[in-house]
Amino acid sequence: MDYYTFSKYGLQVRELDIRHTVESAQPLTFYADYDLGKGLLSYVGGNGQVNANFTGTSKNCAVRFDSRGLSAARKDFVERFRLKDDMADIYENIATDDFMRSAIKNYRGMRITLNDPWETTLCFIVSQYNNVKRIRLIIKRFVKEFGSDVVDSNGKVVGKSFPTSERLTEFSEADFRRCGAGFRAKYIAKAAECCTNNIDLYKLRKNDYDGLKENLMTISGVGDKVADCIALMGYGKMEAFPIDVWVKRTLEKVYFKGKDKKIGYLHKFAEDRFGAYSGQAQQYIFWQGRNL
User: Fold this and answer.
1) pLDDT values of the chain reduced to their tens digit, one per residue, 292 residues
2) DSSP letters for 19-64
3) Least buried of 41, 159, 163, 182, by fewest C-beta within 10 Å?
C-alpha cells in the first residue's frame, strides 16, 4: 500500500496532520519556523533548507516544496515525518480503549518525527522543567548564535543550521546562559563535550533499545525521560515510552483511578499494553492529556 505518492512539486500523503505533529513538543516544535494557519513550515534538514506548503486534510495532505533541490527536500521530508509508517496498523494496535480511540480520533495523522540525534539530545536537555514556549525561545537562540549559515546554490544565505555538539564545545556555560538556558547550561556544556569526544551518537544507531538507552543515560543531563525522548525521536525506537509529568498524570487518571504509580510500573504497563508502538501511543496520551 502506498502511504504517500510523488507529485510534480511535492508529495501527496495519507494520514498526516501537520499541525499536531509539529506543535506536539517534538524537535521541530522548538526550532522550525512555521505558520500552520497558512500551512507553512520551514526548517534546515540534512541537505539544506526545506520549505513546505500544506493543503488538504489529514487524510489526504498535499505537500508542495518551494526549496531548491526538490528531490532532496522530498527525501528529507519522507524520512523526517516517517511517511513509510503504516498508520492504520499503528492505530489498530494502540486503540486499546475508549481513551485511546478518542485521542486517535481527535489527533488522527499526528506522527512521531525522526530527527538528528544531537538535535534531539539538546532539545530535550533544554526541555527539563520547562514549557514549550520557553524551550522554543532558547533553542531558536542557540541556532541563531551558534549555528552556521546555510547557503543555496546561488550563494544566498537562506537559514542557520542546528549547532553541532562540536561547535558548542567552543563556547562556555556563560554563553549558554545568555541564551536563556539557566541551570541547564552546565548540562549542555558537559553533553556537548561528551558527544564530541566520548560518545558517537551516530554509531549508537546500531544498538537495540535497551543498549541505546543505557548509553544515552551516561550523558550529563540525560535521565530516564530524556533518554526515551531521544530514543524515540532521534533514533526511531518506537518501543520507547517517555514519561513526563503530563503522561504520568494522564496514565494514573485514566487507567489507575488517580492512584500514584512508580515510573518503572508505568513503563511496564505501556510495554504490555502498546508493545512495539508504545512511542506512538505515548504521543497521543501526552497530547490528549495536555488538551483535556
Assistant:
1) 679 999 999 999 999 999 999 999 999 999 999 999 999 999 998 778 899 999 999 999 999 998 778 899 999 999 999 999 999 999 999 999 999 999 999 999 999 999 999 999 999 999 999 999 999 999 999 999 999 988 877 778 878 999 999 999 999 999 999 999 999 999 999 999 999 999 999 999 999 999 999 999 999 999 999 999 999 999 999 999 999 999 999 999 999 999 999 999 999 999 999 999 999 999 999 999 988 7
2) HHHHHTTSHHHHH-EEETTTTEEEEEETTEEEEEEEEE-SSSEEEE
3) 182
Q: 225 catalytic, yes or no?
A: yes
pTM over 0.70: yes
**What DSSP character marks residue 17?**
-
Q: How many CB atoms lie within 10 A of CB 53?
A: 16
Catalytic residue among 140, 160, 225, 237: 225
CA distance 20 to 36: 10
Quote the CA–CA distance of 284 and 163 in Å, as a whole number: 30
